Amino acid sequence: MDTTQDPAAVQVPLQRQEELVVRHLPVARSLAARYAGRGIEIDDLRQAARMGLVKAARRYDPSQGEFLSYAVPMANGEMRHCFRDLARGVRTQHLDDDTQGPLAEQLGAPDPGFEHAEARVMVEEAIDRLDEADRTIVRLRFVDGLSQAEIGERIGATQAQVSRALARIIRRMRVVVAA
Hints:
The protein is an all-alpha fold.
């Protein structure tokens, strides 16, 4: 056995790693579908998600919990890397074009479109991790624009209960987005 490997890589036998990856390929496909239509080919997204599964299987420690709890964030992270790489490539292409103004302005300008897209993806991931009741509250508040009192009427709760629920939901989402 190669002793220069990452110690975490030998936690799960190779055959078991392969089984984990193969069994969870549909999950990778589903995760990639969530990112479709955002500037990267679906096949590239699927490949990135699969790479995330492979990395997760190599580093997975069964004593730390379920494989999917570890693998899904890894797969999502690999796909986010694709978006970062795409944004870097777009900036490089612009440098090859004729530019207006000093080069320093072109180099220093952040790409707000990419940052917005990445933030949106991360928020969508956080929302996907919520249970159905919490997703409903988020939708009613931030998509439908209802007040806390109106949400309370719809779900049979007081305004104060909705306020506490929103605070709890937002805290949980911040943890997911920050990870």
